[in-house]
Write a structure and sequence with these properties.
This protein has helices spanning 3-17, 31-55, 63-82; strands at 20-23, 26-29. It is mainly alpha-helical. It has one domain. A hairpin with a 2-residue loop joins strand 1 and strand 2 (26-29). The termini are far apart. The mean pLDDT is 89.
Length: 93
């Protein structure tokens, strides 16, 4: 078996473990798979927000300020995709 075939088999196995199914070459996700990925992504988001809070107020031009700026960009990009209406369902906003 070639390396490409092994990679393809491994990918299919992983996708199925994540709750995806394939029908005629089209992968679809289950509501459970989407919910799982959302929970994982939300945990990462929370860590980014926490770290940004720790860096808030760093001096301009410092390495910490550069990291803070990049974190804010990542947080905002995630939030735009995750909560396009600008608020979490059942949350305060």
């Amino acid at each position: 078996m070639s390396a490409t075939n092994r990679q393809a088999k491994s990918t299919v196995k992983t996708m199925r473990e994540l709750g995806y199914t394939c029908d005629n070459g089209v992968w679809t996700s289950s509501p459970e798979a989407v919910a799982h990925l959302a929970r994982v992504a939300d945990k990462m988001h929370a860590l980014l927000v926490e770290r940004a809070g720790e860096l808030d107020g760093c001096p301009e031009g410092s390495a910490e300020k550069t990291q803070y700026t990049k974190l804010i960009e990542a947080i905002e990009a995630y939030e735009e995709q995750r909560w396009p209406d600008g608020k979490t369902p059942g949350g305060k906003g």
